[in-house]
C-alpha cells in the first residue's frame, strides 16, 4: 500500500503503484492523464512534456512504449 511505501521511505515506487492501481483504486498518474489529453486532441505532446514530472516516461508512453513495472 502507499501508506507502507511512505513508512518504509520507498517513495520512488509510489508513482508505479498508482499507475498499476488505476483499475482497482481508480487512481492515475499525471502522465496517464496527460496521455488521455493528448489522445483526445486537447493538448499537444509538446505542452504535455512541459507539464510532466517525468517527461522521458511520457514521451515513451506517447510512442506506445510502456515501462516494465517488474
Could you outline the blueprint of secondary structure elements for this entry?
Layout: H1 2-7, H2 14-20, H3 30-39, H4 45-51, H5 55-62
Helix pairs in contact: 3-5, 4-5
Give a structural overview.
This protein has 70 residues and is an all-alpha fold. The protein has five helices and no strands.
Please give a quick description of this structure.
By secondary structure, this protein is mainly α. It contains 5 helices and no strands.
Tags for this model:
elongated; mainly alpha; 5 helices; 70 residues
Number of helices: 5
Distance from first to last alpha carbon: 16 Å
The backbone outline, from C-alpha atoms, is: elongated
Order of helices and strands: HHHHH
Structural class category: mainly alpha
- What's the assembly state of these chains? single chain
Unreliable stretches (pLDDT < 50, length at least 5) are none
Share of residues in helices:
40-55%
Whole-number mean pLDDT: 84
**Strand percentage, roughly?**
under 5%
Query: How many beta strands in the DSSP annotation?
Result: 0
Spatial extent as radius of gyration: 13 Å
Characterize the biggest β-sheet.
none
Amino acid at each position: 500500500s502507499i501508506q507502507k511505501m511512505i513508512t518504509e521511505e520507498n517513495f520512488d515506487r509510489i508513482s508505479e503503484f498508482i499507475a498499476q492501481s488505476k483499475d482497482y483504486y481508480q487512481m492515475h498518474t499525471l502522465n496517464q492523464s496527460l496521455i488521455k489529453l493528448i489522445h483526445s486532441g486537447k493538448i499537444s505532446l509538446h505542452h504535455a512534456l512541459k507539464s510532466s514530472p517525468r517527461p522521458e516516461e511520457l514521451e515513451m508512453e506517447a510512442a506506445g512504449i510502456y515501462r516494465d513495472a517488474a
